[in-house]
């Protein structure tokens, strides 16, 4: 029976989150507790990469974290971003987030519709004379590099922030019946915090194929997975999983 679930993400800001509906419907406790946290590189660490931001005429953003740490680093480095800098974002939501730092102008902000980099490529190819800077985490794959290379675009990937373990305190209880992860880094953080972790009856759910594979690679049992054709979201999968175990 599932009584207490750890969701390794920050607590939703909306009261209408499906997580709260699940908690109420099945009488379970849902705790939001990230296993990982994001921290920015210092100006000194960034300079070691020998990248000059003003050598580039466009920036590719894959997340809000990338936007935050790009502009924070620019401020720390005292770099003034030119008015004609172009921004390419994988979703409209991420594109709109730029308004936190600069005035939003449609003529210089472009975004995809699916959240995948390849959906953004046609817009980038139309601006093939641009020099693209791609802010990334220290943990990333080469998908963007390969896609931009395939279109012969001028680009440079640069690390601006890192993913670190959000360590558990010694007096922090770990009495969960189910753990839900959203990245391989979360699995690594679990094993770092609890090197003698024994899964036993604890259920593990994941979002995304890379996270699911990380569970298996760690020798753990994967009990729930999303997205699938039946469960497009993690909350849809969780609702059904709890229903089957508690009803």
TrEMBL record:
Tetrapyrrole biosynthesis uroporphyrinogen III synthase domain mapped to chain residues: 23-233
PANTHER family: UROPORPHYRINOGEN III SYNTHASE, UROPORPHYRINOGEN-III SYNTHASE
Source species of the chain: Paraprevotella clara YIT 11840
GO MF term list: uroporphyrinogen-III synthase activity
GO BP terms: uroporphyrinogen III biosynthetic process
Stated name of the protein: Uroporphyrinogen-III synthase
Gene3D superfamilies from the UniProt entry: 3.40.50.10090
GO CC list: cytosol
């Amino acid at each position: 029976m599932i009584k207490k679930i750890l969701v390794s993400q920050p607590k939703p800001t909306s009261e209408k989150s499906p997580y709260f509906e699940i908690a109420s419907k099945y009488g379970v406790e849902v705790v939001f507790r990230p296993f990982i946290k994001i921290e920015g590189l210092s100006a000194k660490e960034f300079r070691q990469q020998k990248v000059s931001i003003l050598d580039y005429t466009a920036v590719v953003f894959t997340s809000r974290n990338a936007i935050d740490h790009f502009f924070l680093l620019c401020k720390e480095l005292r770099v003034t971003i030119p008015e004609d800098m172009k921004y390419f974002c994988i979703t409209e939501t991420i594109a709109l987030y730029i308004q936190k730092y600069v005035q939003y102008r449609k003529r210089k902000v472009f975004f995809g519709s699916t959240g995948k980099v390849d959906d953004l490529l046609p817009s980038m190819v139309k601006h093939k004379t641009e020099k693209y800077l791609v802010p990334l985490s220290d943990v990333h794959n080469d998908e963007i590099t390969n896609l931009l290379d395939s279109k012969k675009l001028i680009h440079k990937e640069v690390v601006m922030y890192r993913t670190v373990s959000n360590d558990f305190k010694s007096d922090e209880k770990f009495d969960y019946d189910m753990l839900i992860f959203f990245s391989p880094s979360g699995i690594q953080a679990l094993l770092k915090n609890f090197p003698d972790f024994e899964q036993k009856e604890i259920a593990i759910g994941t979002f995304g194929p890379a996270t699911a594979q990380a569970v298996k690679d760690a020798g753990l049992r994967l009990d729930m997975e999303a997205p699938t054709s039946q469960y497009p979201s993690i909350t849809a999968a969780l609702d059904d999983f709890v229903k089957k175990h508690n009803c």
